[in-house]
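Below: protein 1.
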Amino acid sequence: MSLFLTLIFLTNVPSFAQQTALKLTLEEVVNLAREQSIAGKQAATLKKTNYWKYRSFLADFKPQLSLDGSLPSFTRSFIQVQQPDGTIAFQPVSLNNSLLNLSLSQNIPQTGGSIYVQQQLQRFDNFLNRSTLYNGIPFAFGISQPLFRFNQMKWDRRIEPLRYAESNQQYIEAMEQVALDATGLYFDLLVAQVNLQIAETNRANNDTLYTIAKHKLEIGKISRNDLLQLQLSVLNARKDLASARQSAEVASLKLRSYINTQTTTTGQVRSFELVIPDQVRSFEVDLQQALTEAFANRSDAIGFQRRRLEADRDVEKARKENGINATLNADFGLTNRGSRPIDVYIQPQDRQSVILQFTVPIMTWGRAQARTETARANQQLVVQTLEQARRTFEQQIYTQVTLLDMLRQQVKLTTEADQIAQVRYQIAQERFRLSDLTVTDLGIATQDKDRARRDAILALRDYWQSYYTLRLLTLYDFDTNQKLQGA
């Protein structure tokens, strides 16, 4: 953007922004939005939540040490006891049956089972006959292993890291979306401020020209019809000024609310004075590099892999859960009892337990096949959906790369047009003062001048929104040739 355009704008600051106005550039607004906006804070909170979820997932595959039991476990009551002749007698009991169990367990992702070692001590007190007995397991080793069953842990180890990586990239995308939204609000206010500056200038110029026109009417150099046309222009300029001021205040409120900057340190509401970006980035974007970076960095690309794995997982789950299911539980160790705690550890005896539980479906009326085929159909649907999403994504990248280059040229052309229109308007004003230009021609020059100024600002807006959109789509900064990183 030319220095000429910037100087004209800054020397005509709207009246509402002259008192303690906060001067901001586009980059400063984007940084404020990333740091202070509610959307930015929500993205940071979600990132932290996903981090701790992943930490919890990793902890499930580490050894788990736990202590459980019941201490005390006191009972005082009457219980029914069946006698040899079949009758029931209610006998009083007063007892304590406490238990402590210390175990160390470890999941086995490769097989879907788990192993553990444990130590257990049990104490039984009969307060009626004043006796105490101890029972315990000095050491035991056990394993629980599903057979022919779906292994959830194996798939989780493949899917959850992708989900976590996807969430990290989603955070970067969220921050880039904040930048894009802030850019839109920035230019909404900038356009409103430029419109307000135009309206104020037009109102002042029309007042001046109307005064000159009244003098010309007195000396017979213009018609009364031309004077009435200028008078109408004065009224329209005042109406446009009121509308532009209201639009600027609304746009300022929206931007202030988004970047979460409401008041100054003294509690006063502070208006914004936005700086027109004076240049555009001159980097070139290679389409193939943009596609490569997008599929390497975007959460969507990671999501494609995750969803494909989830579809494969669901097929295996449907197939295995519809067949033979079995679980082997085995326990080997030592055990003993006695009247003292130390007796449990003196010459303990062997302890073994082996249990095989199984389920064999015999007649399901085609339910197993239906579930498996449904999972396979869903798998095919996922593959087709992902392929379509991939192609759409590639089209978005291609469109944005070509659009950015076109908009860069558009900014240059509209800037030159704005310079020409401003100079032409100045010439038109001088010619009108010298009675060498009609009111109609002056009105055309005014409209061209205003249109050129707005087109220049709108071209800047389109360029910068396209710039941040490309960053969002690729998570790559082509200006510095660096991947975008999360804070």
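Below: protein 2.
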Amino acid sequence: MFETIHSSSQHALVIGGGVVGLTSAWWLMEAGFRVTLLERAPDVGLGASYRNGGQLSYRYVSPLADAGVPLKALRWLFQADGPLRFRPEADWRQWRWLAAFLANCNATSNRRTTSKLLELGELSRRRMAQLAVHVPLSEFGWREAGKLVVYRSRTLFDAVVARPDPGNARRVVSAAEMARLEPALAQLAPQLAGGIYNAGEAVADCHAFCVALAARLREHPRFEGIVHGRATSLFVEDGHIAGVETDEGWLQADQYVLAAGIHSRDLAASAGIGLPLYPLKGYSLTAPIRPGDVAPAISVTDFERKTLYARIGDQLRVAAMVDLVGDDPALDARRVTGLTRLARESLPKAADYTQVEAWAGLRPATPNSAPLLGRTRHANLWLNVGHGPLGFTFACGTASILADLMRGEAPPFALDFLAWK
């Protein structure tokens, strides 16, 4: 079933220098491949990896597609600071993605996806621990902070508590206990019905991780270097990729890996492959924590407002919002103002919100929130794409699976719908 590739004699070109591409390059080199990395930006980790939420949610995953989401989405569209914005496009890819997303908005699909992502999350947690031997956790602000998901609605909170907890990993927290567990929530706690706490989750700086890992790549004996250039198309010949056209010239290798975020969609299309990806535009704020500020030590997710808060070093990261507005990375000042207002209302004493640095990034999502892995119909073209907002969480896991697949080994668990077909 799995075709063996003699990796020690193979050269792989990994397209994409974000967290997914960098981890892919590392695990491929550890598997015996010689690797060249192609990145369009002048440095690594400057796309969707740059200022993401910073949460590593290995044990808590919540696919966007779920029963009731379409009705909620309609309400969100009419909220001034709502978590969703939608701008219709004359682009069939947007409508195809939305149709597939709606088809996944049911409890059965959500449970199936959640179960598979929990397997992937546990693998990713173990692989990150292995990587820490080479990239010390201190270099990118990694901290096992725990994760607290807070609920404002009593009905919603009771429904979440009623769900089974197979791993017995969660702790149910009442509103009265909330401020004792996380003092930063003292002012917000009276507005909350309760929360779910998972102790094993972590926070870290994804961009710093990318920079640290890139430094280790450069020291690896099988690393062929980074080419900074924009890939424009893949050239197919006799069922194989013969090369990649870039604005820096023609690049060739034995194996090719697409790990370029949303840009993977157009590159795959140049080889006749339609990837079910759409860019979910998200926003973040990074605010300095001053002496005397009460920033959360635990990473906090406000479930109904779809807003997360993570302390990374001496800064507070606030991330939220899903804008379906096409391939538009520009900051929307109204969204930045709205997110700042939400942060001030929820955690007013957590950081200096007059000094925020705002960011927006395009997160490449599949309709069911599960990444896509594996070989395409072109024998030497591979995928590691579609991680959505969980690229940092799942990167180490999907990279290790990709390396297994590319050297002809079975993955550690059944990939099911994670595998590209």
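The longest strand covers residues 278-288.
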